[in-house]
User: Which sequence fits this backbone?
């Protein structure tokens, strides 16, 4: 089954918790802190596999989570980092963040990869909190939660040539004749319910990939018929082959069909009309075809279009068409070239001391709420099971400037403060 659009959820592995531990050895009455840091959580990584051509596997499973980091140990042992989760996707996959609408990645080349959800950093062990004034800290940090995202995956076929045209103009018949593709063919509209790919061989050495794009009718860019599901596949093609039923056997005007389909392409993406577009007058074996071609061909050529006449059923004109398409493919620019970064850079999210002023204070129903990514991270990693851990968190908030911001917002003694879901009664000390 061909599947070209799915929504999945991914989550980086949680960082391992830091360890609260003290050195215990014979003849050592009071050893110092020796709790180690937790390991980093694994990343979720998408990697292109040219052997794939569908997103079907994501229909069967739509939640993915990388391995978490292990907890730190005594004797300052660092917890093991979690393994990355590598997910293989077909070439032509566009990844979009559902919440923000931002395009996370456009994956084209075999082996190309991108981190789509970063793992959390490991929590610090109590050794890290030792200072000249606190020789025996009895708290550590929890691991940072891994990054969570809801992603939309869209597959845009990587084809050199895209066949467009109204239903039943003969696109499926054409691709089945010139390649090994075996699409369903019938004398009714929307026979093709999924894009078909075919490799067309030219001579002994040349070849190009052709895609039959189904479902294009008037209003396709707005979702009429099946068009908006499939128009995306044209975006990556170098050459557009516009197939017309030149016989007009179904009572439609071939020239009107041509103009309407081009209007849909323009509305979906104006850049599509910058592609080389070859017009193919099909069904020349039927009555009225010669007469219609005589009327229509000069008008199309006046507007700069090349017109070739064929019969996909009998094979007339097919060899000339293949030769012409192959020439256009070789001459056409690559419209989806992607510049590879000089080196892969992996960012694991905010590090200690960074972005510490990134918070907001808002009064809601007499509660002063403090929100922000860095604040939420501090709360998630705090050891709230110990009084020392809680005091350390409060001091961290003070250093971040949260108390000053609360006072500027008008907070008074006894009022409630909600900091990333953690509630306090405000005291002026």
Assistant:
């Amino acid at each position: 089954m061909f599947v070209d659009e799915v929504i999945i959820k991914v989550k980086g592995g949680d960082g391992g918790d830091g360890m609260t531990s003290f050195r215990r050895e014979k003849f050592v009455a009071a050893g110092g802190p020796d709790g180690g840091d937790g390991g980093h959580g694994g990343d979720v990584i998408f990697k292109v596999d040219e052997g794939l051509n569908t997103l079907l596997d994501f229909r069967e499973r739509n939640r993915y989570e990388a391995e978490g980091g292990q907890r730190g140990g005594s004797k300052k042992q660092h917890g093991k980092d979690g393994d990355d989760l590598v997910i293989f996707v077909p070439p032509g996959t566009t990844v979009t963040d559902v919440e923000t609408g931002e395009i996370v990645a456009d994956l084209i080349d075999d082996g190309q990869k991108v981190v789509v959800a970063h793992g959390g950093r490991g929590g610090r062990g109590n050794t890290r909190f030792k200072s000249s004034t606190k020789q025996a800290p009895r708290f550590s940090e929890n691991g940072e939660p891994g990054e969570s995202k809801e992603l939309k995956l869209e597959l845009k076929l990587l084809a050199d040539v895209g066949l467009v045209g109204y239903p039943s103009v003969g696109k499926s018949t054409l691709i089945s004749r010139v390649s090994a593709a075996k699409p369903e063919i019938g004398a009714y509209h929307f026979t093709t319910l999924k894009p078909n790919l075919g490799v067309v061989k030219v001579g002994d050495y040349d070849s190009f990939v052709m895609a039959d794009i189904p479902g294009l009718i008037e209003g396709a860019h707005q979702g009429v018929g099946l068009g908006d599901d499939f128009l995306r596949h044209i975006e990556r093609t170098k050459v557009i082959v516009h197939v017309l039923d030149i016989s007009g056997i179904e009572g439609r005007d071939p020239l009107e069909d041509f103009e309407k389909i081009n209007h849909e392409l323009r509305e979906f993406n104006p850049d599509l009309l910058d592609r080389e577009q070859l017009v193919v007058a099909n069904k020349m074996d039927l009555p009225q075809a010669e007469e219609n071609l005589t009327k229509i061909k000069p008008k199309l050529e006046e507007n700069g279009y090349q017109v070739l006449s064929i019969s996909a059923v009998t094979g007339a004109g097919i060899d000339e068409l293949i030769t012409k398409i192959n020439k256009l493919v070789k001459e056409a620019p690559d419209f989806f070239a992607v510049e590879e970064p000089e080196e892969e850079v992996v960012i694991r999210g905010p590090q200690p001391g960074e972005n510490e002023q990134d918070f907001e204070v808002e009064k809601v129903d007499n509660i002063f709420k403090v929100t922000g990514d860095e604040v939420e991270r501090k709360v998630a990693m705090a050891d709230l099971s110990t009084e020392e851990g809680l005091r350390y968190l409060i001091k961290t908030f003070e250093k971040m400037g949260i108390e000053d911001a609360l006072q500027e917002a008008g907070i008074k003694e006894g009022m409630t403060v909600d900091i990333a879901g953690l509630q306090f009664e405000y005291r002026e000390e």
